[in-house]
Structures are given as C-alpha cells and as structure tokens.
Amino acid sequence: MRILKKYPNRRLYDTTDSHFVTLEDVKQLVIKHDEFRVEDSKTGKDLTSAVLLQIISEMEDSGKEALLTNKLLQQLIRFYGSGMQGLLSQYLEHSLAAFLDQQDGLQRQMRQLLDASPMNMLKKISEQNINFMSAFAAAGNQKKEKE
Question: Which of 25, 43, 91, 146 could make an S-S bridge to 21, C-beta 3.0–4.6 Å?
C-alpha cells in the first residue's frame, strides 16, 4: 500500500516514489485503483478521507455538472449523528457497487452487440422472429384443437 504523508504546509509526499504529489496525482491513484493511505506527517493520523473529500470538492466546483446536488448534500448532513449513519454508509457503498456491476454488464452487452457482424445480427433476429411465430402458430393450433 502506498503511503502519502501530508505536511503542515499542505503538501503531500509519496513515500513509495519519494516525491511530492498533487491532488491530481492522488485522483489518478483513485482512478487506477491503487491502494493508498494519507497520513499526517507528525501524528500518523489517517487523513485519507479528508484528502478524498478535498478532491471531490474541487471536482464539484469545476464548473461541470455536479454529482452531489445541494439537496443530496443536505440529506447526507442530516444523517450525521443519527442512529442510521452507519447503515446509510453501508447502503451507499453497496448501492454504488451494484450500480457499477450493472454498468459493467451493460458495457459488455454493448461490446458484444458492436462486435457482432451485421449478418450474424440479422440471423439472430430472424431466428427470434421464427421462434416467436412458431410459438404463436402452435398456440393457435392448440386453441383450434380444443374448439
């Protein structure tokens, strides 16, 4: 796990690569799924959440469409200190994980569709239509036989 030290001058130092890093560098670690921890250089206190929140804050202020709306942020604030705080945290983690799994599944399906040749696509659609029409005709024949 990569350890980043945060100094009183607000600079971040990557102890693995022995150089100072920016918040943009930390953002790239997150995007690349690199494991890291941000620690206070004097106390060793875990500051990872504070740094991640700072990155989110800068992204929210970037002028692009905000992910965290005012209404959502207000609702989150209301959960702090309540008995539901821990439950909400777990719920949000699981919901986001499920959303990402669904997104991955949809992307795989789209890739499969795009990778398929037009002739194969027409063949599959034709087979589905034939199966549907056969089932429809069989149902009609069964109805006639009963009458």
Answer: 25
Task: Give per-residue burial for 63-86: e unless 16+ CB within 10 Å, then b.
Answer: eeeeeeeeeeeeeeeeeeeeeeee
As a whole number of angstroms, the distance between CA 4 and CA 47 comes to 9
* Higher-scoring residue by pLDDT: 147, 99: 99
Find tokens 């659609």 and name the residue.
Answer: 125
Give 51 or 137, the one with higher predicted confidence: 51
Per-residue pLDDT tens over the stretch 94-127? 999 999 999 988 888 877 776 667 777 778 888 8
How far apart are the C-alpha atoms of 125 and 112, rounded to whole Å? 15
Domain ranges of the chain: 2-114
In the sheet that 12-14 helps form, which strands lie side by side, from edge to edge? 19-21, 12-14, 2-6, 36-40
Contact assessment for residue 18 and residue 30, using Cβ atoms and an 8 Å cutoff: no
